[in-house]
Hints:
- The chain has helices at residues 11-18, 39-45, 65-77, 124-145, 155-172, 186-193, 195-211, 236-256, 277-293; strands at 24-28, 34-37, 89-92, 98-110, 113-122, 176-184, 218-221, 226-232, 262-270, 299-302, 310-312, 322-323.
- The protein is an alpha+beta fold.
- The chain has 2 domains: 11-127, 2-Layer Sandwich (Beta-Lactamase), CATH 3.30.450.20; 146-323, Reverse transcriptase/Diguanylate cyclase domain (Alpha-Beta Plaits, 2-Layer Sandwich).
Amino acid sequence: MERAVDHKLSLEAYGGFLETIPDAALVVDRDGVIMYASDLAEQLFGLGGGLVRRTVHELVPEDKRAGHVDRIGSYWKQPLTRRMGKGDFPARRLDGTEFPADIMLAPVCLSGRDLVLCVIRDLTEQKAQEMALMAALERERRLALSDPLVGVANKRHLQLAIEHEIEQLRRHGRSFTLIYLDLDEFKPLNDEFGHAEGDRVLVTLGAFLQTAVRKTDLVARVGGDEFVVLMVETAGLAARKRVPDFYLSVASFLDASPWSITASVGAAVFNMAPKSVDEAISRADGLMLEVKRRGRAGCLAHYGAPDDEVESCDLRVGWPVVVEEPTATP
Length: 330
């Protein structure tokens, strides 16, 4: 057995030394009975002058005590020094409150008895600082991937998400759909009512778009009044239903709004992996621009197969279901 001090040193003399260290300290016997408690230990556990002759099991949450008894038995089979920094433990004050603690253990022989020194460090403040740091880092991560005005994903976030979906399509055949949405007559609204009102339009629309898609989909703002929606694992019949439903919900939302604006929407389904993220976005963007060319306030979709025609996904108007391919994007 390791011995930290000579057996001739008394418990009382050793206790004087423990009062000089900056952490709470206990000296405990083989049965877990506290033989000495420093003033800092009394303060930490909330019972000034009352720890001696109690068991250390009382300083452990009730649901952990059975396991703690077993650990003490295991420790005495091979009592070695355990240094701090190897993990925290739940500790319990005598008033029932709990806190995270780091513990150092070292076997000692005092007044001819085999005992163990327990040094306890309260990690409450450290854990709070760690949580605050993690929260700050998470906020920074969200800000780095979020549009600061609207609160949806930004273009960088969209690019990363599309890169992931392209890789999933290449490796596992998981198709996806991109929807490009651009507001019509947004600049005149901005000019007439001011940028504050224009910002209100964008924030309101961004919030609505997030409710109009699944939680697994991604809504991103990629320009002043331009949004892209990434619908994961969406192709075939699912795309033919979800894209028109999406456009109908957006058109109905704008019709009911106080603003005289509409939306032009283009949607592209990817059953084969595009060469790049830019190519993928460009295909949906090109369809949206074709809607603009045709007079705005509509929706065109290409559902994926190379020989498929471009179709109208605006179920409210009399556009033919099948239309010619859009002109090339300038």
